[in-house]
């Protein structure tokens, strides 16, 4: 039975057909290195990912590489594939993954790991690296979750640590020797491991103490003792994304995206991205305008988004937004900002964008009291919050969404009550400021997520709250958030505590991952498919204890599974930041003065802000 | 303000695009090909695209028709050269001065139906069956109304033409012209179901390939291609 016949039996078949505007159809010769960019979630999620768009174009602009795409098939398509004994294929040429040279997974979220195993299985590829041979594709992985690669170390041949643009091309050069049969797979892996930024886990054997903690790694070959992350040093002149695939299906972020800077200088202590993507590197406004011009004139998107970790912190955000609105308004092309800072400056910028239509605004105070915001170094003051409420409501907005985390270090009942006070301040401020003629009533939506401590952050040693504690906190908030104008949404703690296990897990928990997969777990990030009880069974059967990984507090001198990697930040900086946190002492924005994280010395070899 | 009418195909993998996806695709392709799109007024301006008849996901077509309102005329050659994903091709384009909407005038659609049964049907007298079937006056089927209630519809009033092209092995291939549009529609798959039960076929349908060949309205009693619709009708 052919793929086309199956497509009649599944919902949203356009997920699987390929052929979108700006996709590549390339001639395939014996010399073509065939690469699949694999996203372990469905099309609508994967196609929203800017990194995929970058890698796809970067690789396809190389003459001897053909990069295709593959996403996790939705459950109906998986059932059809299995029923008809068909393999998972790429969108571009409908080639089975097993017939390609390299499959590159992006690790965006710990709860997508079972989908990686499922996709390999659907392709008929052995899950364990050690069982794959020269004829099998090489399985590689990159993305933010590689900053703790260990839970996947048994399944992935090579991890790409850091930004992959240059690293991938260097790796492709070495891969060519392997493709030409000049070197063996073992030699390829040795050569790869000696490229800065590549981690080949099979050459690093974890060693454990009697209490189950790690003592280090036994390095079995002539490869580096630590793996240093890679960055694009000059973000303004490196590879520029000048076109994008225009998706068919109604994807999550269905718009043009342009990255305006990488890294972040805020130093929020809970935020892994803020630590691992250092240092901050901006693109010049002219480069951004040029990128956008080229993207819009080849895609036809009706909206663009300025992407970064904290868009309002771009040094020239005000003029940039004004220029963009001025240039594209006439073509009815909208500008959107992914995240807003809580201050009146952000409101000034956004009011130019949402001149007519006042859709809701979203802010993230993260914590309910000044004390706790100081603990996490979230540079938001009570004054910022009240100013923001005053200005948005007097300008005519009436809906606001507020994001908070629960389970932050040192959190008390008072901090939870603070969340409710901020929400009530919002509804009160609305009544005080509402302009004449606004008939609508105010709506404040409070969303809480459960905090997951991540590697390479000052909180990497702390114990995560357990499920009952999270539940109590949610219950407390439910009893407090009784204002009828306030809507309370919360994430269930079960997924967060499992995320906590994989975020800081070691190589041993790969066994639990595999067992959970065998027991049927997949799409764990999707509520309807998440079965915590099955995960508990998987951990029990593999004699592993989740609490060892998530709720246990580590000592500063414990060897951590990700200590084999060098993210550019000194461990002593993280320790000092953790201590500052416990004392609720803030650390300034590092644009205003270096805070000494070490990235300038270790990654740049000089000052951070050459152009920022 | 100019109305541009486009005749295009929707074939191969593009037949799996849903109608909303197709509309979005056209809008974006028009945008980056710099068509002078006329936008609707209001808070959320959108370009004004209309499609004669949404095609079910999975059906292919050799003759779809859509219209888009432009602020000014552009060269027809430019329109004919617009590149869509493989499977969608502009066959023809014209500026029209026509107050009628395509949807309100559409009456019939012509299809080729390739019906695959679960076992051989080559030995069955499909040719005679189709002839006798077309002489029937009344065959009623139940159809859901917009209000959700069921009503009986006479299929014979909705079948304008039906011919057997061939039947071999498990397949039967038919060419049919069925009512479609605002006055009622007969779905090709429903037709096959009605036909099968009328002749008490033991075989069950495994798959139906549907290809639309044309959209029509009646002019002086004759079927006329909807693409030719003009102000006078």
Write the layout of secondary structure elements.
The complex is a heterodimer of chains A (612) and B (233).
Chain A: H1 3-7, E1 33-39, H2 43-46, H3 50-60, E2 65-71, H4 75-83, E3 102-106, H5 113-122, E4 138-142, E5 158-160, H6 164-179, H7 185-193, E6 198-199, E7 204-208, E8 214-219, E9 227-228, E10 256-259, E11 261-262, H8 272-276, E12 281-282, H9 285-299, E13 303-307, H10 317-328, E14 334-336, H11 344-353, E15 361-366, H12 370-375, H13 382-394, E16 399-406, H14 413-433, E17 443-450, H15 467-480, E18 486-490, H16 493-503, H17 510-518, H18 532-541, H19 546-549, E19 565-566, H20 571-582, H21 599-604
Parallel strand pairs in A: 1-2, 1-3, 3-4, 4-5, 9-19, 10-13, 13-14, 15-16, 16-17, 17-18
Antiparallel strand pairs in A: 5-6, 7-8, 11-12
Chain B: E1 2-10, H1 19-32, E2 49-51, E3 60-70, H2 76-80, E4 90-96, H3 102-105, E5 108-117, H4 126-135, E6 140-144, E7 150-154, E8 159-168, E9 171-179, H5 188-198, E10 205-219, E11 222-225
Parallel strand pairs in B: 3-10
Antiparallel strand pairs in B: 1-3, 1-4, 2-3, 5-9, 5-10, 6-7, 8-9, 10-11
Strand order of the largest sheet of chain A: 2-1-3-4-5-6
CATH class of the largest domain in chain B: Alpha Beta
- Tally the beta strands of chain A: 19
Shape of chain A: globular
Q: What does the main sheet of chain B amount to? A: 9 strands, mixed
As for the number of domains of chain B, it is 2
Low-confidence stretches of chain A: none
Strand content of chain A: 5-15%
Structural class of chain B: alpha+beta
Average the pLDDT over all residues of chain A and give the rounded result. Answer: 95
Largest sheet of chain A: 6 strands, mixed
CATH-assigned fold name of the largest domain in chain B: Alpha-Beta Plaits
């Amino acid at each position: 039975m052919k793929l086309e016949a199956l497509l009649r039996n599944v919902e949203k078949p356009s997920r699987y057909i390929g052929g979108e505007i700006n996709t590549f159809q390339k001639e395939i010769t014996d010399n073509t290195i065939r690469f699949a960019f694999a996203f372990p979630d469905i099309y609508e999620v994967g196609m929203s990912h800017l990194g995929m768009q970058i890698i796809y174009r970067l690789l396809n602009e190389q003459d001897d590489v053909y990069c295709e795409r593959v996403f996790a098939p939705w459950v109906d398509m998986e059932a059809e594939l299995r029923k008809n004994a068909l393999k998972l294929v790429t969108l571009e040429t409908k080639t089975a993954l097993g017939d390609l040279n390299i499959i590159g997974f992006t690790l965006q979220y710990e709860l997508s790991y079972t989908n990686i195993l499922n996709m390999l299985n659907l392709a008929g590829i052995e899950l364990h690296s050690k069982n794959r041979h020269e004829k099998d594709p090489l399985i590689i992985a990159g993305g933010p979750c590689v900053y703790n690669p260990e839970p996947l170390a048994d399944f992935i041949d090579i991890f790409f640590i850091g930004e992959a643009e240059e690293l991938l091309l260097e790796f492709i050069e070495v891969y060519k020797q392997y493709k030409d049969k000049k070197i063996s797979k073992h030699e390829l892996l040795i050569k790869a491991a000696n490229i800065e930024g590549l981690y080949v886990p099979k050459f690093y054997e974890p060693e454990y103490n009697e209490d189950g903690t790690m003592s280090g790694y036994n390095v079995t070959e002539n490869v580096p003792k630590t793996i240093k992350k890679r960055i694009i040093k000059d973000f303004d002149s490196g590879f520029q994304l000048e076109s994008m695939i225009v998706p068919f299906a109604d994807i999550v972020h269905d718009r043009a995206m342009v990255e305006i800077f990488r890294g972040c200088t805020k130093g929020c202590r809970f935020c892994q991205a803020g630590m691992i993507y250092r240092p901050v590197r901006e693109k010049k406004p002219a480069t951004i305008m040029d990128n956008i011009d080229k993207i819009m004139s080849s895609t036809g998107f009706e909206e663009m988004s300025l992407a970064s970790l904290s868009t309002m912190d771009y040094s020239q955000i005000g003029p940039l937004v004004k220029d963009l609105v001025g240039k594209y308004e006439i073509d009815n092309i909208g500008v959107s900002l992914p995240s807003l800072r809580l201050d009146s400056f952000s409101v000034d910028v956004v009011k130019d964008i949402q001149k007519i239509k006042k859709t809701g605004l979203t802010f993230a105070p993260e914590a309910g009291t000044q004390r706790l915001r100081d603990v996490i170094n979230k540079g938001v003051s009570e004054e910022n919050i009240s100013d923001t409420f005053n200005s948005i409501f007097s300008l005519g907005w009436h809906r606001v969404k507020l994001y908070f985390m629960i389970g932050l270090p040192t959190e008390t009942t008072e901090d939870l009550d603070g969340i409710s006070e901020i929400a009530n301040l919002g509804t009160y401020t609305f009544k005080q400021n509402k302009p004449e003629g606004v008939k609508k009533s105010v709506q404040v939506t409070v969303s809480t997520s459960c905090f997951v401590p991540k590697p390479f952050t000052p909180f990497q040693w702390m114990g995560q709250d357990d499920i009952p504690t999270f539940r109590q906190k949610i219950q407390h908030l439910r009893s407090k958030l009784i204002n009828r104008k306030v809507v309370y949404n919360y994430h269930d703690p079960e997924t967060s505590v499992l995320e906590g296990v994989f975020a800081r897990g070691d190589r041993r928990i790969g066994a639990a991952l595999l067992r959970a997969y065998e027991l049927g777990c997949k799409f764990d990030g999707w509520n309807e498919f998440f079965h915590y009880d099955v995960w508990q069974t998987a951990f029990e059967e593999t004699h592993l204890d989740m609490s060892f990984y998530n709720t246990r507090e580590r000592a500063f001198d414990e060897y951590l599974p990700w200590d084999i990697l060098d993210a550019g930040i000194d461990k002593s900086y993280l320790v000092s930041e953790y201590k500052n946190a416990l004392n609720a002492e803030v650390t300034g924005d590092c644009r205003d003065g270096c805070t000494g994280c070490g990235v300038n010395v270790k990654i740049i070899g000089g000052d951070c802000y050459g152009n920022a | 303000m100019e109305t541009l009418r486009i005749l295009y195909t929707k074939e191969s993998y593009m037949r799996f695009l849903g109608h909303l996806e197709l509309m979005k695709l056209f809008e974006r392709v028009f945008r980056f090909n710099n068509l002078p799109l006329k936008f609707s007024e209001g808070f959320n301006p959108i370009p004004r695209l209309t499609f004669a008849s949404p095609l079910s996901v999975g059906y292919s077509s050799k003759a779809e028709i859509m219209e888009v309102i432009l602020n000014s005329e552009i060269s027809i050659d430019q329109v004919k050269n617009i590149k869509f994903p493989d499977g969608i091709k502009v066959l023809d384009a014209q500026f029209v001065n026509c107050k009628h909407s395509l949807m309100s005038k559409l009456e019939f659609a012509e299809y080729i139906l390739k019906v695959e049964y679960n076992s051989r049907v080559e030995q069955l007298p499909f040719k005679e069956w189709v002839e006798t079937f077309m002489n029937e006056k009344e065959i009623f089927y139940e159809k859901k109304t917009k209000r959700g209630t069921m009503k009986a519809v006479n299929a014979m009033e909705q079948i304008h033409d039906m011919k057997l092209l061939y039947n071999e092995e498990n397949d039967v291939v038919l060419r049919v012209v069925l009512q479609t549009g605002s006055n009622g529609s007969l779905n090709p798959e429903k037709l096959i179901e009605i036909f099968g039960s009328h002749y008490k076929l033991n075989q069950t349908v495994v798959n139906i390939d549907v290809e639309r060949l044309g959209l029509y309205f009646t002019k002086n009693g004759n079927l006329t291609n909807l693409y030719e619709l003009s102000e006078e009708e």
